[in-house]
Design brief:
Strand 1 and strand 2 form a beta hairpin. The chain has helices at 4-17, 21-34, 81-94, 99-104, 109-112, 121-149, and strands at residues 56-63, 66-73. A two-stranded antiparallel sheet has the order 1-2. The longest helix is centred in the last third of the chain and has 29 residues, at 121-149. Helix 3 runs parallel beside helix 6. The chain is globular, with a radius of gyration of 15 Å. It contains 6 helices and 2 strands. Belongs to the SufE family.
């Protein structure tokens, strides 16, 4: 598996190749459509990402020291594909990692590639909430793993 830095570099190169903001949105829509989603039974209120433009669910699964993240948006929303694409992009970096890897990643990465430029304030806040939730899950599972070793 590639390191977080390697995946970030691939994403940085992808975004650097875009010649217009339309290319960026087309890419996000593409990865949104390719994202496998998750079982509707997992879409419980307790996994709802607060502050997101769409109803987005983020479900953690911690197994063998690895944090697996399942994300999807509510079907039937007016335009959940942008939000779903943002979530899928975040999962490209953080899913299947140890909590320590996630916590060592630069949370400003998405700002550095200009992703949040052009997002509505609601989507930008929702995306920030998603990233915050990922880091929170990583902190919790890191602490639980540390306790288990003691």
């Amino acid at each position: 598996m590639k390191s977080i830095l390697e995946v970030e570099e691939e994403i940085r190169a992808t975004f650097a190749a875009f010649t217009s903001s339309d290319d960026k949105w087309a890419y996000l829509l593409k990865i949104a459509r390719e994202h496998p989603g998750m079982d509707d039974r997992l879409k419980a209120e307790k996994f709802l990402v607060k502050g997101c433009a769409s109803r987005m669910f983020l479900v953690p699964e911690f197994k063998d020291g690895i944090l697996h993240l399942h994300m999807d948006t509510e079907v039937g929303e007016a335009n959940p594909l942008i939000s779903r694409g943002l979530g899928a992009l975040a999962l490209k970096i953080y899913d299947g990692r140890t909590p320590e890897e996630i916590l060592s990643a630069d949370p400003a990465f998405f700002q550095n590639i200009g992703l949040q430029q052009g997002l509505s304030p609601t989507r930008a806040n929702g995306f920030a909430s998603l990233l915050k939730q990922i880091y929170l899950y990583a902190k919790v599972y890191s602490a639980l793993a540390t306790r288990a070793k003691e």
